[in-house]
């Protein structure tokens, strides 16, 4: 492996570390929300009706998800820009395209979650 290849791999690793970091955060958030949903389902099974607080909890959880995803999107874009400006990743290269695709996936998740929040506020 020559130096240029190792520089590229190092930039890819930095990008993937950011992705993994936010993936872990979102997984923790999802687990907490899943447990909350189970509590609500248990209450409903015991004949208790849904409350406005439950809808507020769902909305707030999803807004927190959006904030985390926006932070992830920003950090990934920043890392990609730094990699390109340093000359280690070439714009238009396969690595660049792969990183852009990952950023676009996060953007799509943000949009989907925003729609979900909007639907919850209308229920």
Number of strands: 0
Poorly predicted spans: none
Quaternary state of the chains: single chain
What structural class do you assign from the helix and strand content?
mainly alpha
Mean pLDDT: 93
**Radius of gyration (Å):** 19 Å
The percent range for helix content is over 70%
Biggest β-sheet strands, sense, barrel: none
Topology:
Elements lengths: L2 H43 L6 H34 L8 H29 L1
Summary of the model, kept short:
This protein is mainly alpha-helical. The chain is built from three helices and no strands. 86% of the residues lie in helices and 0% in strands.
Structure description:
- By secondary structure, the chain is mainly alpha-helical.
- It contains three helices and no strands.
Q: What descriptive keywords fit this protein?
A:
123 residues; mainly alpha
């Amino acid at each position: 492996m020559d130096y240029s290849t190792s520089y590229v791999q190092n930039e890819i690793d930095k990008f993937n570390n950011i992705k993994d970091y936010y993936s872990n955060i979102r997984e923790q958030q999802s687990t907490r929300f899943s447990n909350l949903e189970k509590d609500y389902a248990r209450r409903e099974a015991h004949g208790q009706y849904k409350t406005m607080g439950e809808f507020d909890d769902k909305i707030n959880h999803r807004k927190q998800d959006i904030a985390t995803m926006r932070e992830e999107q920003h950090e990934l874009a920043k890392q990609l820009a730094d990699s390109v400006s340093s000359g280690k990743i070439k714009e238009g290269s396969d690595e660049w395209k792969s990183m852009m695709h990952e950023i676009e996936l996060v953007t799509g998740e943000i949009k989907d979650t925003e729609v979900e929040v909007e639907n919850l506020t209308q229920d």
